[in-house]
Structure formats: C-alpha cells, structure tokens
Design a protein that fits this description.
With 149 residues, the chain is an alpha+beta fold. It is built from 3 helices and 7 strands, in the order E-E-E-E-H-E-E-E-H-H.
Length: 149
C-alpha cells in the first residue's frame, strides 16, 4: 500500500515584503545554495494551519498567522504520494532566527523576487501564489521553460 505525506509551504509576508530563505542542497550541483520559501512536512495529528505555524517558527523563529491557502500541488515518487499546501501568512515582526538547515534570508518586495530566486520550481510558486503580476518568466531568464512538461 502506498504512503502519503503532506508538505506545507509558508510564503511569509511582513510590511509588504516576503521572506526568501537560502537552503543548501548538494555540493555536486551547479548552485548548491538555492533561494526559496519556507517549507516542511506536516506531522501526524497536526492540522495544516498548526503545521504552518510550527514549520515557520522552527525554521525562522517567526510567529505567523495563516492568511489564506494560495494553491496546492502533488506528485508521486515511488510508493509515496506527496500533497502540498502553500499558504500566505503574516509575520508580526521581521526579526528572523534561522534554523541550522538554512544558510541565509532576505526580506524582498515583490519586484525583487526575480533577483533573488532562480530555481524554476520556486518561480512557478511565485506565479501560483499570484505574486508575479509585475514579473514575467523572461525576468528569470526562463521565458522558454515549460513548467507543465
């Protein structure tokens, strides 16, 4: 029988800026550090809202309040089906304390996102979240990239 896991993504906003975090992936790839939004796995017995609050607090030290679900996604790898829920959430402060698995952070206005985030999957997150109305894929050098392939 297959397994399920639920990922929660927090697109954290404070005073009109969004929190981008830099995570290390692998020294064997071209860009071992990549910028993205905070995410993590929901634990058994948690509600999605509580998981969001826990994940963002653990990774950034920020207490957040869920605003709304922006979009969902899913994929299957082997016998595990992963379902994702992306939230927009509000932070009361911008004082970040990063967890050990994150390397750096930046608060960026919507127009700066394309200068910080280069990962095509995260670019898709930006579009799915409705944060890209002033951006286009050409801003990311990805105007010919097919996200739906």
């Amino acid at each position: 029988m297959g397994k399920f896991r639920i990922l929660i993504k927090g697109i954290v906003r404070h005073s009109g800026k969004y929190l981008a975090v830099e995570r290390w992936y692998d020294d064997r790839i071209f860009e071992p550090y990549q910028w993205e939004f905070i995410d993590g796995e929901m634990e058994f017995g948690e509600t999605p809202d509580k998981a969001l609050e826990r994940i963002v607090a653990e990774k950034s030290g920020l207490p957040v309040v869920p605003d709304k679900i922006l979009y969902t996604w899913g994929f299957t790898a082997g016998e595990t089906c992963t379902i994702g829920i992306a939230y927009l959430c509000e932070a009361a402060t911008d004082e970040v304390i990063l967890s050990e698995d994150l390397h750096d952070y930046r608060w960026v206005v919507r127009e700066e996102i394309s200068q910080v985030i280069t990962n095509p999957a995260v670019v898709q997150d930006v579009e799915n979240a409705g944060l890209s109305n002033s951006l286009n894929l050409d801003d990311f050098g990805l105007d010919d990239f097919d996200f739906h392939a």
